Amino acid sequence: MITRIRDRQAFHPDLRLYSLFIPQRLVTPKTLPVVRRLSKLIRGSSDATVHQVAPGVSVRLFRPATPAAVPGPAILWIHGGGMVMGTAAQDDATCSHFAAAVGATVASVEYRLAPEHPYPIPVEDCYAALRWLAEQPEVDADRIAVAGASAGGGLAATVAVVAHDRGEITPAMQLLVYPMLDNRSLTPDERHRLWDAKSNRFGWESYLGDASPEAAVPALRADLSGLAPAWIGVGSLDLFYDEDLAYAARLEAAGVPCTVEVVQGAFHGFDAVARSRVAAEFLAAQTKALRSALRRGERQD
């Protein structure tokens, strides 16, 4: 059951101080080159190994400390950045955590960015990474989660749709962390942080290019039946709050199991910028959902 409870008056106590300093908007057409240059300075973890999976597409691979004796679970992780920025290395800590805490092989995909590479290129890059991951000898192809945050969550939702339609791989679940799902979410609010209505318009226009929104935007897909079970987490002060709960409701109406985690008073990307109890609890909820989904159907041989 999905409950809409939202206190629009206050930031979460753990996030109030952060809210005073974090901007409403991180990227614009003018700031994008600077943000991209800064992202290139991110030093990834030495725990990751890099593998080329297709032309222009690579993954940063994290393995559990104790590999399973039989093929085990895996996670395809897709980084955020509004479709126009970001790098796989920015989420190395999250991927390393999932590998250790879930006991899964984690592949974090370096997909090509819009506007230089609009839809469907980022989706096909991520799907190529999913196919590559499913072919690895240590991976049980029936126990793969597609997961991501923000734009990465939107791409994870799209990859889940593509996987269903093509029938080659059946994800065990889709983990969507404040996912970017609907190009129509353009309502401004002074409590938004990091990603607001103007940023969202720029990100979607860059990603869509000349494509039909009906083909590219997850929220515009008419039939959601048959998709992988979902977990959706979002803050109540996130631009994506309404679209994420609407998508969750449509999944449930289509017979797709969906768990929703709403963090009251949390803004977009709060867990990435605020070292806090609420951020740790949000990560713990994701970890629990992944463990539960990926242990189902575990091989015993």
Task: Provide a descriptive summary of the structure in words.
By secondary structure, the protein is an alpha/beta fold. It has helices at 16-21, 32-39, 92-102, 121-134, 151-166, 197-208, 213-216, 241-253, 270-273, 277-295, and strands at residues 49-54, 57-62, 72-78, 105-110, 139-149, 173-177, 230-235, 258-263. Strand 3 (72-78), helix 3 (92-102) and strand 4 (105-110) form a beta-alpha-beta unit. The chain is built from 10 helices and 8 strands. Helix 4 (121-134) crosses helix 5. An 8-stranded mixed β-sheet has the order 1-2-4-3-5-6-7-8, with helices on both faces. It has a single domain (16-295), classed as 3-Layer(aba) Sandwich (Rossmann fold).
In short:
This protein is of the alpha/beta class. It is built from ten helices and eight strands.
List keywords for this structure.
alpha/beta; Rossmann fold; 10 helices; 301 residues
Mean pLDDT: 93
Spatial arrangement of strands, main beta sheet: 1-2-4-3-5-6-7-8
Within the CATH hierarchy, at the fold level, what is the topology? Rossmann fold
What sequence of helices (H) and strands (E) makes up the elements? HHEEEHEHEHEHHEHEHH
Domain count: the total is: 1
* Main sheet record: 8 strands, mixed
Can you tell me the residue ranges where pLDDT is under 50 for at least 5 consecutive residues?
1-7
N-end to C-end Cα span = 37 Å
Instruction: Tell me what portion of residues adopts beta-strand conformation.
Output: 15-25%
Which class best fits the helix and strand makeup?
alpha/beta
In CATH, the homologous superfamily goes by the name Alpha/Beta hydrolase fold, catalytic domain
Radius of gyration: 18 Å
How many DSSP helices? Answer: 10
Q: Any guess at the CATH architecture?
A: 3-Layer(aba) Sandwich
Q: CATH first level: which class?
A: Alpha Beta
